Amino acid sequence: xxxxxxxxxxxxxxxxxxxxxxxxxxxxxxxxxxxxxxxxxxxxxxxxxxxxxxxxxxxxxxxxxxxxxxxxxxxxxxxxxxxxxxxxxxxxxxxxxxxxxxxxxxxxxxxxxxxxxxxxxxxxxxxxxxxxxxxxxxxxxxxxxxxxxxxxxxxxxxxxxxxxxxxxxxxxxxxxxxxxxxxxxxxxxxxxxxxxxxxxxxxxxxxxxxxxxxxxxxxxxxxxxxxxxxxxxxxxxxxxxxxxxxxxxxxxxxxxxxxxxxxxxxxxxxxxxxxxxxxxxxx
Amino acid sequence: xxxxxxxxxxxxxxxxxxxxxxxxxxxxxxxxxxxxxxxxxxxxxxxxxxxxxxxxxxxxxxxxxxxxxxxxxxxxxxxxxxxxxxxxxxxxxxxxxxxxxxxxxxxxxxxxxxxxxxxxxxxxxxxxxxxxxxxxxxxxxxxxxxxxxxxxxxxxxxxxxxxxxxxxxxxxxxxxxxxxxxxxxxxxxxxxxxxxxxxxxxxxxxxxxxxxxxxxxxxxxxxxxxxxxxxxxxxxxxxxxxxxxxxxxxxxxxxxxxxxxxxxxxxxxxxxxxxxxxxxxxxxxxxxxxxxxxxxxxxxxxxxxx
Lengths: 283, 306
What we know:
The complex is a heterodimer.
Chain A: H1 3-26, H2 57-93, H3 95-109, H4 113-133, H5 144-172, H6 176-183, H7 188-225, H8 236-245, H9 255-282
Helix pairs in contact in A: 1-2, 1-9, 2-3, 2-5, 2-7, 3-5, 4-5, 5-7, 6-7, 7-8, 7-9, 8-9
Chain B: H1 2-29, H2 43-52, H3 59-71, H4 86-121, H5 126-140, H6 143-157, H7 170-199, H8 202-209, H9 214-226, H10 228-232, H11 234-251, H12 257-266, H13 270-298
Helix pairs in contact in B: 1-13, 4-5, 4-7, 4-11, 4-13, 5-7, 6-7, 6-11, 7-9, 7-11, 11-12, 11-13, 12-13
């Protein structure tokens, strides 16, 4: 394998992440700063133009990158934990428990994933807000929807991983080292997490590079529909939706559509490419 | 064959029933009543409405009531679109979504398979790398980017197609293209990796030694076994097109089933949401069934009875 494109791709992703974290501090504009220069096309003062309320698009895109990347990372991590644990337990215990656990996965598989997230998020948004309000977590209440988005996306992405891990565990648990671990008296959780988990880890990490773009994509999808990230916050999906809402045949502010699209597509392309190369490496 | 179909259909029934129960309970457990609006209802009216729609009593009772209606083929009445039954709404909107979806499905396969076969045949050459890169590019551009960008380009800058609406064939072009393009890449890559694996097999070497020309080799000998992973992908592909259709219908103002689903969730329209989810679930089960059947048909080593 030629490592050159791989390194370039990693560098580009690192650059993007750094820009998302530190970029907004260097911008002369704040993220919600409204000005009189509405819908200004890209020029020297506003590099990527401004939106309907005169807010600087570049600043908002960098800010949106934080949310989009964060949702991707947290969602993928949650799916990783749930999927690996579920697959480990189901595969190792086997028999009737395994059967029941896998039927449950089948049932969830029979639903389009996004549909499940939409139902979860839009129905339990208020409930979670009320729940959080009463506790010490009250400051989080205004972000209830974002929290649900993290959890919801994480909770639908784990299905495939659970199947993969289970299939691996089914063969690994028959190997001699698992038997010897049992013979020296290690208990089931220790065997699962100390003996078997390291064996499935490479596959799991490769899967992470698949789940990351998938979750980012799903978040943007929901936000574009208006069901994801809500108004004071912005993600790439909502920025794109704002641009798309201004589509009209007379004079469309193209920069509001083109730049969010480019950034999102570029990030997804990088992540997909990275996952591709990693999978090739594993074979 | 028939016993395979029967067994699969029987095993789908519990799955569909669980999906319905989960969905119905989720919508009913959620805060906010389908009857709440800006105007406050007096409790007596609310109770009457709930009784009328079979939403009074304990949750298991409501679910039982709903399920027994389902067995009679009655999906209930929409709570938001008053006076319209869910059967009627789905009956009107589903054919539109199915038409759009099947065009996109066909396009994804019709463009993806040749693209993948071509890039596999050119493996190792610059043109092969380029085609493979093209596939990666199309699968990285999601539907909701394609939709506004293509409208901007092909409806406003170059006035080729109408930007939205439903009714004439020209209004189908942009939505079905946008819906299918991301999956062209997926299909191309599945075809390519399948082909590359098969092209290294012994029977291909034999065919080549017999003097079969390269295009015939790829399309007549290698494609059938190589396409198996693609067939297995038919189920997930159908699911992705269904969800993609939600967004396409919103952006292109197509009165399909996806639009009703989104508005149903927002309005807590329990029967509409459950009905649409049931339709989605049945469609998915159907596609998975077809995919398994086709796999066995294409690969004689797989038997349907086991």
